[in-house]
Amino acid sequence: MSAPAKPQQQRAIDTRNAILSAGEALIEEYGAFRVRAQQVADAAYVSIGTFYRYFPDVSALIAELGWVAVKAEHLARLERGAA
Predict the structure, then answer these.
(1) Which of 10, 27, 38, 60 has the fewest CB neighbours in a 10 Å radius?
(2) CATH code for the structural domain at 10-82
(3) What gap in Å lies between CA 35 and CA 58, rounded to an integer?
């Protein structure tokens, strides 16, 4: 099974971002090992099927959040170096 494609339409991008934000908030509150897909879906106001459309499991969501953090840190370092 291949990884879900990144969304192209704004509505899909917004849905994916809502899932990421909800996941991040829940992980900060409960810890990565205690968060379940249904909790993230509920917090993002999407169905569990929608969650799985964008992420195969919570581990993939956590990995994406980590990648987003790494990219943000890298961009911040570039901006500090350019200033």
Answers:
(1) 10
(2) 1.10.357.10
(3) 8
User: 13-58 pLDDT, tens per residue?
Assistant: 999 999 999 999 999 999 989 999 999 999 999 999 999 999 999 9
Residue 32, judged by CB atoms within 10 A of its CB (0-12, 13-18, 19+), counts as middle
Three-state SS for 21-79 is: HHHHHHHHHHCHHHCCHHHHHHHHCCCHHHHHHHCCCHHHHHHHHHHHHHHHHHHHHHH
Question: Measured between alpha carbons, how far is 4 from 17 in angstroms, rounded to an integer?
Answer: 14
Q: Domain coordinates of the chain in residue numbers?
A: 10-82
Q: What is the DSSP letter of 9?
A: S
Contact 55, 4 (CB under 8 A): yes
